[in-house]
Amino acid sequence: MHTIKKVFFITSLFFIAGCSTPPQTYYLDATNGNDTNSGLSADNAWKTLERVKKTSLQKGDKILLKRGEVFNGILDITGKGTYTHPIIIDAYGEGNQKPCIAGNDTSMYAVRIFNSDYFTIQNLEISNTGKERKAGRTGLKVECTNYGISHNIRINNLTIRDVNGSLVKEEGGGSGILIVNGGDSIRSRFDSLTIENCHILRCERNAMIWSGYYDRKNWYPNKHTIVRNNVIEKVPGDGIVPIGCDSTLIEYNLMCDSPDILPMTEAAAGIWPWSCDNTIIQYNEVWGHKAPWDAQGFDSDYNCQNTLIQYNYSHDNYGGMVLICNSGNAGDYSCGNIGSIVRYNISIGDGIRPKETRQGMFSPSIHIAGPVKQTLVERNIIHANLKPSDIVDRTMITSDSWDGYADSTCFRQNIYYAAEPSRFDFTSSTRNAFEENIYIGQFKNLPESPKNKKAENFYTEKVLKESADGYKGLHCLMDSIKVKEHTLHYIKPEAIKAFFQSIF
């Protein structure tokens, strides 16, 4: 009697709240389930993903997949939850092994979330491996097209692995996660999309990338995106690339150990925005990037305004620490690259590209390309170790042409250490300002002549005496956390600020 009253009371509450029926929880079991079952309990679970397609999800509904099971095929799903009653895709059962959704040979995606609101997908594994590489193949596709605003999509604790897309960007590439927004009849975008605690492993070409409105004449950016606490491992191309976004926060992510398998035509880098405003990239680590061109840890790319790159750690990449670039021939869809700030980052042992690329042996620690404007590079530490061979580039900064040259760039209180003779090359860039930078080593074309013996002695005592390669000494300025059983290093703001205050 009490149970009946309780069910009646709960049901009544949902009717009062505007729900036609109480939320349902549906179970899937690939081994013991049956699509003729009700799906409403673990003992009456459905068997296949096809059965989910026939279900119209209501606010508050859950789809639970049994741990340790493999569900072959495609999960293509739409759900409109609310702030208090989100729709959730999750795991159930004993053990730690995530349920796996495995795409078929021809699938462009294994999971798609389409035109949804207040939707969480978490604690699953997704793979999408075909017999051959397929251009545009992805693991998870999140799409908002001719819909309006899609609110609060959360992607949490997914393992996305073994997606064999194309290695060539112009063919369409491939990705672990693809975020798409657009539409001709109804302009559409995401608001408060979050990607966190995910592990993206062996995905080709890229880890996570967006596709949206990039034209400034038709600007409708995604808002308030958060990408945090993710590990990107053994991905050869781009790591995290928001496109057509405003106010994106990218923090506490690790990209590591990229395989050297991209064709020689390809450029890629770790974490970078394109056609974005007000992006913050902080507390991240990128190491072992091996793209034939670029291969920096971080990048502020063109059609971007007010990109902030701070407290990041870049090391042992074929390219340098950072690229700041703008195409002078992009046309009126682009605003250029304005107001980038790169501060309090540390680079150790970057710029070790062992083979020729588009411009020969080219891998400066900082590359400024094209007519970027009003850039500030401040209080970074560039520690360039001995290069692996005599032919490797040893340039600290190159500021060169991409249909134009940089203007109004300020380099303030940075530390440049070179274990062997290095150089600076500002080519035809204009109105470069240099303020109190520290140069330790031998350099050609120094932009400033004064030597700061106090700073040199301080750096020798605090860093070089600990270890000539810089790792031990500079790690004292870092903190670390565990992310997906990996160790992520990032710069401690209070430590690096105190370090510079001791010098200046």
From TrEMBL:
Q: Sorted alphabetically, which InterPro entries does this protein's record hold?
A: Beta_helix (IPR039448), PbH1 (IPR006626), Pectin_lyas_fold (IPR012334), Pectin_lyase_fold/virulence (IPR011050)
Q: Where is the Right handed beta helix domain?
A: 185-327
Q: Which domain of life is it from?
A: Bacteria
Q: Which Gene3D superfamilies match?
A: Single-stranded right-handed beta-helix, Pectin lyase-like (2.160.20.10)
What the entry lists under Pfam families is as follows: Beta_helix
Please state what the protein is called: Right handed beta helix domain-containing protein
